[in-house]
Design a protein that fits this description.
The complex is a heterodimer of chains A (333) and B (419). With 333 residues, chain A is mainly α. Chain A has 15 helices and two strands. Chain A has a two-stranded antiparallel sheet with strand order 1-2. Classes of the chains: A mainly alpha (333), B alpha/beta (419). Chains A and B meet through helix 1, helix 2, helix 5, helix 6 and helix 7 of A and helix 1, strand 4, helix 3, helix 4 and helix 6 of B.
């Protein structure tokens, strides 16, 4: 089978930006956590874009995946730290648990919400998110509302120095890797049968069905992939990095809204969009918090509105139109 | 042509990289300190904005007192001024780590203050540990933070488990015949910790727990729970979680005519609006607080219990606080505990005669003092063990501090008047 390399050219600018971020963060003192924050936003945007960008379904319950990913990592570290000799394997067990829990949640959501469309779909997703949070709190699962704290377990297994390295460096490197994976999957889907089917669903789901596309199958593929990536981001950026989880802090719809803003800023359904959106969103928030502490949200909102007015299809949406017919076209999708 | 595009992309990447690099710090050079920088990733917006603003005002008030009245912090025979550098974390866990790193590396903060709440305090802890910088916890009440083995977190706010300890002790002093206790708290991390502490302490003091239950956050009807509670016929009811459910708790206890000798609700009964909204129904209802305006801690009181006194008097603090915020607001306990955290830092630096984190951390472990906030002492883990909560009670439409004896301004009404 011949692999068409040219279809992966759009990954070049994406990876170039990630590499630049990584190198700046790694070599400039005091910038690593900022770069990690930006990578978190970019990874979230790119993961969410796989489902929302390609299908047009607005999943308000996306944060459920991130939250369950966090719980997966928390469980992996808390319970498996009791077995000496597992070492770094507990982190990988945490990742597997994150994927497992997000799969269960995706099955639940696919069974209930994916049968619905538009506002009904959005409301069902919110309902599942809130329901899971109350289940954990009410049934006192995994510490209930008291949550889980596991810095102690982490230091017992790895020692303080390695625990610090894991939480302040390796968790962030993992987010970079997840972001790069999400970008690759985005391109792969966009340039394959899956992407075409999803585009057809986005444009007119009934017509797509009539044309013989198994809409449920393709929607589920995109939903699962997007959910898995979200769970991995949660496992690393919240679970491993922050070494605690409280249900009231993770099942928060606000994070889904952030995903929407990031993707809309950059360009819905584009590859570079979530990256650009994540950078604009993260850098503006960071800078405004420094320059105008306490008043940043007053300035931030008009900035977002101005960008949306100037770039109604998102920054990359507009750039894409401009570069049409030029050599850059093949790099910007 | 192709080179042209490549150049453009390379330039864009360069600009982006340069922008990022500008966010970073300048290379470090070892110089004799001219000032002591205290960094803070403060919650000035988001869900903890109110508590964050209070903490901000309390810190500025105390820093101004240290610099203007005390003349600075004495280190190596030299008085150094305190400088406060802060950024708004928007009450978000993601923002805490990057802002904390900036404060430590770019702003060269010698010490950092944690944001409000246990969750946000925990979020920044690994970064503080990485840079070995003392991380003053002024708003994270969870005891479990201090069971994790962090080396640099030091708490000023009293732990959640001690919220109702003072209340129980006071009741035992006033009426040793009151023996049965009902516990009904909100199902939240903070309230459950309070329940756990209250239960343990009550059992230790010989009280009998006749009812123990939690109710979900955002509850709109407590009648079923309170009906069961009534059946257990307790002398004392301890509970609550937040303002709204505290109000509901009080109102529905009155509706069901549940008259007990003492009712104490956390995080609600201490607020002025509680009594204003409930009127007569709030009479005799108590609430624990870390600090309330009106406490009578003084140099004299400190001497009596054998502690050193530091900092402004309560009235001086209130004036400095209003000046710091530029508005007529009375400080609450969030302001007082953040201010007291700075005072502890100042004393520890002077005691260690150094700005080195490990030396100052060791001094903080040794330190015991009293200020307008009350007494201050931490154990080896950094957990606050020296500060006693104050208990206030609604009496004739006024909030009266009734416990501990060194801070009270009135006698407790026991038993409380019937609804």
């Amino acid at each position: 089978m011949k692999i068409n390399i040219a279809k992966y050219y759009p990954l070049i600018p994406v990876y170039a930006v990630y590499l630049t971020m990584f190198l700046v963060g790694f070599f400039v003192p005091g910038l690593w956590q900022l770069v990690a924050l930006l990578a978190f936003y970019c990874a979230l945007g790119q993961s969410w874009n796989i489902f929302m960008g390609m299908t047009g379904y607005v999943d308000f319950g996306y944060v459920t995946f991130i939250a369950l990913g966090t719980y997966g990592m928390a469980l992996g570290i808390t319970y498996f730290s009791q077995f000496p000799g597992l070492g770094i394997a507990i982190i990988f067990i945490g990742l597997l648990l994150a994927l497992f829990l997000s799969t269960l949640s995706a099955i639940l959501e696919a069974g209930i919400a994916l049968r619905l469309r538009g506002a009904y779909f959005a409301i069902a997703c919110i309902g599942i998110n809130e329901g899971l949070r109350h289940l954990i709190e009410g049934a006192k699962i995994w510490g209930g509302s008291e949550g889980m704290l596991y810095w102690k377990e982490l230091t017992e297994v790895f020692g303080t120095e390695t625990a610090i390295q894991l939480t302040t460096l390796w968790a962030d490197i993992a987010v970079f890797i997840i972001a790069a994976m999400a970008a690759f999957i985005n391109v792969y889907y966009m340039r394959s049968k899956i992407g075409y089917a999803l585009t057809a669903i986005r444009e007119d789901e009934d017509a797509a069905k009539v044309m013989g596309i198994d809409t449920t199958k393709y929607k589920t593929i995109a939903f699962l992939t997007s959910g898995w990536l979200g769970a991995l981001v949660g496992a690393m950026a919240w679970g491993l990095k922050l070494t605690h989880v409280f249900p009231a802090d993770v099942f928060v719809i606000h994070y889904t809204v952030e995903c929407i803003v990031i993707v809309v800023l950059g360009g819905i359904g584009t590859l570079l969009g979530p990256l650009v959106g994540g950078l604009i969103y993260g850098l503006s928030k960071y800078w405004l918090a420094i320059i105008l502490p306490g008043f940043q949200l007053l300035i931030f909102a008009p900035i977002i509105i101005c960008i949306i007015i100037a770039f109604p299809e998102g920054v990359i949406g507009v750039v894409k139109r401009r570069v049409k017919g030029t050599r850059l076209e093949r790099y910007i999708i | 042509m192709r080179n042209g595009w490549l150049m453009k992309i390379a330039s864009l990447l360069f600009i982006f990289g340069a922008l990022l690099a500008l966010s970073g710090g300048t290379p470090t050079t070892e110089v004799v300190p001219e000032k002591i920088v205290v960094g803070h990733s403060v919650c000035l917006s988001g869900k903890y904005a109110k508590a964050g603003e209070q903490a901000y005002g309390g810190i500025i008030a105390i820093i101004n007192w240290v610099n203007d009245v005390s003349g600075g912090v004495k280190v190596a025979g030299k008085k150094l001024p305190l400088e406060y550098t802060y950024y708004d974390c928007e009450s978000r866990k993601e923002a805490v780590t990057s802002l904390l790193e900036r404060l430590i590396t770019a702003d060269k903060a010698d010490f950092v203050m944690a944001p409000y709440s246990s969750g946000l305090t925990l979020a920044g802890a690994p970064v503080a540990e990485k840079y070995s910088v003392i991380y003053m916890d002024h708003g994270g009440a969870s005891d479990r933070i201090f069971q994790q083995g962090y080396n640099y977190i030091v708490q000023t706010i009293g732990p959640a488990t001690l919220y109702h300890a003072g209340t129980l002790k006071m009741i035992q002093n006033v009426d040793p015949t009151a023996k049965t206790v009902a516990l009904a708290y909100e199902d939240s991390e903070f309230a459950r910790m309070t329940l756990k502490g209250a239960k343990e302490y009550a059992e230790e003091l010989g009280f009998e727990i006749v009812f123990e239950r939690t109710y979900p956050a955002g509850v709109t009807d407590l009648t079923p729970l309170l009906s069961d509670l009534k059946a257990s016929n307790p002398d004392i009811v301890l509970g609550g979680g937040h303002y709204e459910d505290g109000m509901l708790f009080n109102r529905q206890m009155a509706d069901l005519d549940i008259n007990v000798k003492a009712l104490s609700l956390i995080a609600s009964a201490t607020l002025p609006t509680f009594g204003e909204a409930l009127g007569n129904l709030a009479e005799g209802v108590m609430g624990p607080s870390h600090w309330e305006y009106g406490v009578t801690y003084s140099t004299k009181g400190a001497k009596k219990v054998g502690l050193d006194w530091i900092g402004p008097s309560q009235d001086e603090f209130v004036e400095l606080f209003k000046e710091a915020l530029g508005k007529e607001v009375v400080p609450d306990y969030h302001a007082a505990e953040a201010g007291a955290a700075i005072l502890s830092l100042v004393l520890a630096i002077e005691m260690a005669d150094s700005l080195d984190s490990d030396e100052v951390r060791a001094a903080l472990g040794e330190l015991e003092f009293m200020s307008f906030y009350g007494s201050w002492d931490v154990d080896d883990t950094g957990l606050q063990v020296g500060h006693s909560m104050v208990d206030m009670q609604w009496q004739g439409g006024e909030r009266v501090i009734v416990w501990p004896t060194e801070a009270r301004i009135g006698e407790v009404w026991f038993p409380k008047p019937d609804f």
